[in-house]
Amino acid sequence: MRITEHPVLRFERGRKVTIYFEGRPIEAYEGETIAMALHAAGIRVLSHSGEKHRPRGLFCAIGKCSSCLVKVNGIPNVRSCITLVEDGMRIEMQKGKEILPRTAKPPEWKDATRYEADVVVIGGGPAGLMAAIHAADAGASVILIDEQPKLGGQLVKQTHKFFGKREQFAGVRGVEIARILTEEVRKREKIRVFTETSAVGIFQDGDEKLVIGVRKNRELVEFSGKALVVATGAMEKMIPFENNDLPGIYGAGAIQTLMNTYGVKPGDRVLIVGAGNVGLILAYQLIQAGVEVKAIVEAMPKVGGYFVHAAKVRRLGVPILTRHTILRAEGTDRVERAVVAQLDENWRPIPGTEKVFEVDTIALAVGLRPSIELLHQAGCQIKFVRELGGHVAVRDERMETTVQGIFVAGDSAGIEEATTAMLEGKIAGIAAALKAGVATPEWLGEIEKAQRDLEEFRSGPFGKHIVEGIKKALLPAGGGSNV
């Protein structure tokens, strides 16, 4: 199931190692995660649910759901999608709720290692990378943390070329943008990077913000800063249909991670649900990887993505069925087929219009929701804004939330494109450096320029609803931070 040839990507795999799944030796490569190695070996069922013992498999591939939890070397609840393989690692299928193993002697408690900087950035995607770069350029010392093994966020799986201006990477593939921004971060001495590090809490510590993190599932760490940028991205949405929990049903981003980041085919025959830009681009990427796309189904009466993407997919022979929805997935331990039907004007399935697709994979490209859990826990005011994809943090024009010194950027501020995430990251990073007292007033001009660029990028027809949503998420005139 590994991809050996690709028209755009080249996969550089690390040293070959052996891991053991349920006692069975599995070939893996250093630098890939447990879930990727197991998928390459054809293993889809990773755990079973607690009550009905239904099979569970990979869904989001970014550590934000519980579908891929496994036991590793006796330790349960390990997220296999973001945990790197190690030679000799022993993995067991998790069966419902597991308990931590008892040891003959309790481990000795150690104080958390503490790291300090002017600005702490949570999230190493396009928004977080730009926030770290511009905060450092504005004079701040920066800590950048991300729970993934590598920086880049969603960019590392995007093989299509970006639109917009040249200075905003127009004509450059997302994977290349990730490489460029990562190099920019690495060459700045003011930025310290912590990958494989999960932020689990934000607290006020005197005049500073304190982030509690867990590094490599083993070490408790603390990060202290005068200002904090939360760029935690988003997670895939789920839709209700029969058997929607079967292994073989993935969020679109998970399939991109499998194919474009680790060079592993998600399956042989795929049905895509959702004809927005993500679903259309995913179809093309699947075909590039040698996967057959049976169809794209879309509940709306028309395609939601750009015409250029839809035209490319149709030229490749992929039917796009508007006014259709998925009724159910069928299979025993994994997807074997999908049943779809046409919808009437009241969004109800029309009897007799069912179509059956023999597929082993169902991709849900039905949207994202902002990851605002840390912002909520920190006390930031949260508001539901439909146009921005769900609950978001209320903020001002410099991306500062209602908690003084905490800024937000990217998809965690509202679901948009990577270009807007980078511009918001630039604004938040500079504003955080100003809040920390290390940036000079001249940097206000850079914030204003980024704000103008954002306004221009959102001026098209696809940005109209975003502009309306942002108006709802902004603090009212004269408002301010409450902490």
From TrEMBL:
Keyword hit for Zinc = no
Write one Gene Ontology MF term: 2 iron, 2 sulfur cluster binding
Q: Which residues form a coiled coil?
A: none
All copies of the 2Fe-2S ferredoxin-type domain together span 15-97
Q: Which UniProt keywords apply?
A: Oxidoreductase
Record's InterPro entries?
2Fe-2S-bd_N, 2Fe-2S_ferredoxin-like_sf, 2Fe-2S_ferredoxin-type, 2Fe2S_fd_BS, FAD/NAD-bd_sf, FAD/NAD-binding_dom, Metab_Enz_Cyan_OpOx_G3PDH
**One Pfam family linked to the record:** Pyr_redox_2
Has the keyword Transmembrane been applied to this entry? Answer: no
Q: What is this protein called?
A: Proline dehydrogenase, alpha subunit
Naturally occurring in which organism (per UniProt): Thermococcus kodakarensis (strain ATCC BAA-918 / JCM 12380 / KOD1) (Pyrococcus kodakaraensis (strain KOD1))
Q: What is the lineage of its organism?
A: Archaea, Methanobacteriati, Methanobacteriota, Thermococci, Thermococcales
